[in-house]
Inverse folding.
């Protein structure tokens, strides 16, 4: 009889290959391709259950209720706090402040909620203690351990009996039962699976710190994100004090929340109202600036776009931006030159945001266009004005989501006028809205603001 063909299958995405390869040809994961026959499930008989099935009305809710950690913005991102037995994955770039944030969370938890265990696999216990002394994260019920062996971590959990466990990070801990290298796909999966099982069995709130790859995605197998209950992304520019915790997945709360923090030498503090970090104060109107409102999660934040247009001495003029989406800025510049008849092909164009803000959504297109046009004409935009709208390739201004929330935030911050797309919906009483259907209307306002509406210069 002819020998059956051997098939190799990726355990991550299911991609198959007639021969073994070290890297999956579909999802590009390393070490996930194995013999399909070994992965094929057999016949499984009925077995004992952990708990009998109950009517849904008889299922208690206490095990799914969140407990505040004491760090307001972290609780906001989590939807109220940590849940006993839930496992949270916090990922971010090296040096962004993950350890500082979690050390503060652990200390506040130990002061109010019970014992907390902080396990570090990247630093010594003395290094963590030094950071805790500097940031004030000291508590009697906060226990530190420096381990890279999974069995030792489990022993610490048995001895301390904590209600919160922090593992920093999951890529630095290895299981002694596997021969794979530390940080490999199989090791990360085994470590995470074991800690998830312990957290569920004993009702321990667990936070795993994860590394990220060059493109910003979470390192390790994709199955890791499916196993945990909550996935948080810690973001921030190293040259800025602003840090954001963005919720990517949350089984116990909203998955679109954002928490804002201020990172300094003294530690990390919550920012309940971070809008002031993204605005600069000018005593008089300045050409090349425009304010817009972006929505991070469900939180509207004001951001300032600045532009500089100068004659270029190069054959290919420079296009540089910071804090904005390069593709969208290039599109807006093309629309401005083609539909707005503003010559930019021989000029250098620099665009930036204030305070390290990231304005990448289409709602800020109109603000970018007005800032560039203002800089090109050396005509200052009125103080107290914001601009909201998406710019189309035909030069039309389109509606954006969350218009009422954006305008309400602008009113709260003292802005009195707004350039908005047609039919924006209900407008707050303190905002004077001017509807613009095409970029020509917006450029006319930039050229002569007084003809569009009288602006109260006392408001900002």
């Amino acid at each position: 009889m002819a020998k059956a063909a051997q098939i190799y299958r990726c355990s991550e995405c299911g991609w198959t290959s007639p021969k073994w390869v070290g890297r999956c040809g579909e999802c590009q994961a390393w070490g996930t391709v194995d013999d399909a026959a070994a992965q094929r499930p057999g016949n499984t008989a009925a077995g004992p259950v952990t708990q009998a099935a109950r009517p849904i009305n008889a299922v208690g809710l206490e095990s799914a209720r969140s407990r505040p950690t004491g760090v307001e913005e972290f609780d906001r991102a989590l939807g109220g706090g940590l849940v006993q037995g839930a496992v949270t994955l916090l990922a971010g770039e090296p040096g962004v402040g993950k350890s500082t944030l979690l050390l503060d969370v652990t200390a506040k938890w130990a002061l109010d909620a019970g014992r907390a265990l902080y396990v570090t696999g990247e630093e010594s216990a003395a290094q963590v203690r030094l950071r805790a002394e500097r940031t004030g994260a000291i508590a009697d019920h906060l226990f530190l351990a420096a381990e890279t062996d999974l069995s030792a971590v489990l022993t610490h959990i048995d001895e301390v009996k904590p209600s919160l466990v922090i593992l920093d990070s999951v890529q630095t801990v290895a299981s002694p039962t596997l021969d794979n290298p530390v940080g490999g796909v199989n090791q990360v999966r085994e470590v995470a699976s074991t800690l998830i099982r312990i957290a569920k069995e004993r009702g321990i709130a667990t936070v795993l710190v994860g590394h990220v790859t060059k493109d910003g995605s979470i390192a390790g197998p994709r199955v890791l994100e499916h196993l945990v209950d909550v996935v948080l992304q810690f973001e921030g520019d190293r040259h800025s004090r602003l840090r954001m915790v963005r919720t990517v997945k949350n089984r116990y709360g909203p998955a679109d929340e954002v928490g804002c923090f201020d990172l300094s030498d003294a530690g990390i503090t919550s920012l309940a109202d971070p809008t002031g970090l993204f605005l600069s104060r000018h005593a008089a109107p300045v050409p090349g600036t425009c304010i817009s409102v972006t929505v991070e999660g469900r939180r509207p934040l004001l951001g300032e776009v600045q532009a500089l247009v100068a004659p270029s001495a190069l054959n290919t003029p420079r296009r540089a931006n910071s804090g904005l989406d390069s593709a969208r800025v290039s599109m807006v510049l093309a629309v401005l030159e083609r539909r707005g008849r503003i010559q930019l092909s021989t000029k250098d164009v620099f665009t930036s945001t204030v305070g390290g803000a990231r304005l990448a959504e289409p709602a800020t297109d109109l603000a970018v266009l007005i800032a560039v046009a203002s800089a090109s004409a050396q005509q200052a935009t009125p103080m107290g004005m914001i601009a909201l709208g998406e710019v189309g390739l035909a030069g039309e201004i389109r509606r954006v989501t969350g218009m009422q929330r954006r305008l309400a935030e602008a009113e709260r911050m003292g802005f009195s006028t707004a350039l908005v797309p047609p039919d924006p919906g209900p407008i707050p009483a303190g905002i004077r809205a001017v509807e613009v259907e095409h970029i020509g209307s917006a450029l006319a306002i930039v050229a002569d603001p007084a003809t569009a509406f009288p602006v109260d210069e006392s408001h900002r």
The first helix runs from residue 36 to 39. The radius of gyration is 27 Å. Residues 8-36 form one domain.
